[in-house]
């Protein structure tokens, strides 16, 4: 473990990517979503983050206001997807369930980029409801009547670090901060 604790926030594509490529085993702590648990690791839930679909008022005027999920098939969609942008790994695919065509999806590897494209009227983005800049924007939730998409975020570390005071303190601080937002 060396001088300090190595921390990684990554978004794996599949359970096999986590297990086979050992993304989270290179570091002492991993924070992110989990698709499959490995018994060699301790998984502590930090928080469920809720996501919803947002568009600018200008986009809605020009392209219409989707009322149901199936309506998204007729819109340009902006996704946070590292795999399509860099070939490394990707986030939860929020648009996969509607069988969107690739040509209607814009992939970007930045939450701020997603937000700015949506704000500029380029398309509809699926954004975390807790983003501070989202709360201050004029973006409109476009599918208000559906429940938000929930993504559980975990704090993960190797079993051998279970009693480590730095790990305990780090988890406590992260959990406390996540709970206060």
Structure overview:
The chain has 181 residues and is an alpha/beta fold. It is built from six helices and eight strands, in the order E-H-E-E-H-E-H-E-H-E-H-E-E-H. The chain is 27% helix and 26% strand. Strands 1, 2, 3, 4, 5, 6, 7 and 8 form an eight-stranded mixed β-sheet that branches. It is elongated.
Q: What is the radius of gyration computed over CA atoms, rounded to a whole number of angstroms?
A: 18 Å
DSSP strand content: 25-35%
Mean pLDDT across the residues is: 78
Helical content, roughly?
Answer: 25-40%
- Kindly, what is the distance between the CA atoms of the first and last residues, rounded to a whole number of angstroms? 31 Å
Uncertain spans, ≥5 residues at pLDDT below 50?
A: 11-25, 82-92
What characteristic shape results from the CA principal axes?
elongated
Written as H for each helix and E for each strand, in order along the chain, the element string is EHEEHEHEHEHEEH
- Major sheet description: 8 strands, mixed
Secondary structure class reads: alpha/beta
Total count of helical runs of at least 4 residues: 6
What is the number of strand segments? 8
